[in-house]
Amino acid sequence: MAKIERDDIQIISRHSNWSVKNIDQTLKENIYSTKEAWQKFLRLFFISLGVSFTIAGIIFFFAYNWAHLDKFFKIGLVEGLITATTLVILFSKLSHDIKNIILTGAAMLVGVLFAIFGQIYQTGANAYDFFLGWTLLITLWVAVSNFAPLWLIFILLTNTTIVLYSQQIAHNWSFVFITTLLFSCNSVFLIATLFINKINNALKPPRWFTNSLALAVVTSSTIGISFGLFDNSKGTLFVLLTVSLLAYSAGIWYGLKARNGFYLSVIPFSVIVIISALLIKLSDDFGMFFLITIFVITSVTLVIKNLINLQKKWIN
Question: What is the pTM of this model?
Fold first, then answer.
């Protein structure tokens, strides 16, 4: 039996003689967070906050005392912290969630270690190989942890590596090709996440994580296509248009099937932006900008109206 939702209780209460006492009891049992749930949330929240402040403190410690510290002490201190946190994760009896939070902190310390190394030996703190090494060294941790925040950091590092590589090494890559590459990379992560969610409910990622990936995919395609309309990379633009059309169609289908309004909102808004860019490509005079304004207002209103109607249909 599916879990009862707040909307179900409201509908039943309006069309039945369900007593206020029983409604209140049902809300407490199925909707409201319990004392134990709040305690777990606050415990994980403060631990995450503590780990974040600790990493920030380490960074500021090195920044403030950089000139007074020996280079071997700088590197050895961070390596010792990474080793200590790893040993705590492996041999302590802490809960699984707390270990994952500490592991995320250790992954951030790997980046601090690379930054210190790059600063000492002047290898460059914004070089693509800095982020590539950081990404590769935490790959195993990311794979075994199954922790959404750590996966998000890994994906951000992957995207950053691609962008910096295109700027520093692959100078012949066009902007449309870069956005196509980012679109493909994030699409692979999103498809893999949704597939894992389907075959194994125990590994189900949180919705904010899949929505973040979907937003990255849509943003990459929107920027790439809009820019490509004014660029000469027609071949790459055609490829991006083709794969985006397939991805958008699959996204609309999935949004309707899973009753997820996020996909049904970001994809139409992306299409609105792309059509607006196409109209500007055709003409950039005052009359066209007035037409684009009318088009955006009308299309956004229709999208919102359809989303509201869908939400009502799903609730009922």
Answer: 0.81
